[in-house]
Amino acid sequence: MTSKRPLWLAAAPVLFLLLWSAGFPIAKIGIAHAEPMTILALRYTLVLVLLAPLALILRPPLPKSFRAGFDVAVTGFLIQVVYFGLCYLAFKSGTSSGTVAIVVCLQPILVGLLAPRFAGEPVSPRTWAGLALGLIGAGTVILSHAELKTQGPFGLICTAIALFGMTGAALYEKRFGVTQHPITANLIQYAVGAAVTLPLALWTESAPISWDWEFIAVMAYLVLGNSLLAISLLLAMIRAGEVARVSALFYLVPPLAALFAWPLLGEALAPLGWAGMGLAAVGVMLASRRARG
């Protein structure tokens, strides 16, 4: 007898994709107001400021052991520091968003290759077909939409390490992650992120923040939408489902990010990009569909 999936988990993929994808053009708007590490440090610190009073009032349970807390911290480090931090450094070094997106788009394939060994999850031929279609579709969107450039090898090295950071986070969470109270998990993960990015921002960046209503709106979205809701949904989906299928959702991020960039940044999606978006959607449906049995 199979248990019925909760409604919030069924809706989680759509909500996650919308929140995560919109964050890319919104973060690009933020870069015009502050330097990358400054944005990340401010983002993580604001999350902690919001969660600390809730933790004092609600007193959520702490991890049951040091190892459980350590596992939460490792996942947070891989996502908040390795993935986000190095992607932002790549942008700062002159690497275009298209170049970063193409490299990071390899994440579902990398997860599929490593999942049988590190998460004990075999990848079916249908899932592989979906992953391949998703990669082709997402790559089509990126190539039709973004300029591909890089200023030397530093940006590409950062992007490659960021790819392994997000891949490692997904596999680590699947293998070692256990359900924690969301306030507790977020406090640990964003404390790790702030502990690394805040010193980096202070040591390497000196440009002042351009405070106005637009930057305040950007930070509000990055804190509430990206940092609190999207990451919590992603980790919950990884724990509840097969990691390769959840990772396939990332193929829809470049198309949806391009779609959000249209009204937010005035960057229209080319006709070839629309075709790529449809192909990526078909690939994700194939890779994410649960086998009946």
Explain what this protein looks like in three dimensions.
The chain has helices at 7-31, 36-58, 66-92, 97-104, 107-118, 125-145, 153-176, 182-204, 213-240, 243-248, 253-265, 271-288. With 293 residues, it is mainly alpha-helical. The protein has one domain. The protein is globular. The mean pLDDT is 82.
Question: Any chance you could write out the topology, listing elements then pairs?
Answer:
Layout: H1 7-31, H2 36-58, H3 66-92, H4 97-104, H5 107-118, H6 125-145, H7 153-176, H8 182-204, H9 213-240, H10 243-248, H11 253-265, H12 271-288
Helix pairs in contact: 1-9, 1-11, 2-8, 2-9, 3-7, 3-8, 4-6, 4-7, 5-7, 6-11, 6-12
Outline:
The chain has helices at about 5-30, 35-60, 65-90, 95-105, 105-120, 125-145, 155-175, 180-205, 215-240, 245-250, 255-265, 270-290. With about 290 residues, the protein is an all-alpha fold.
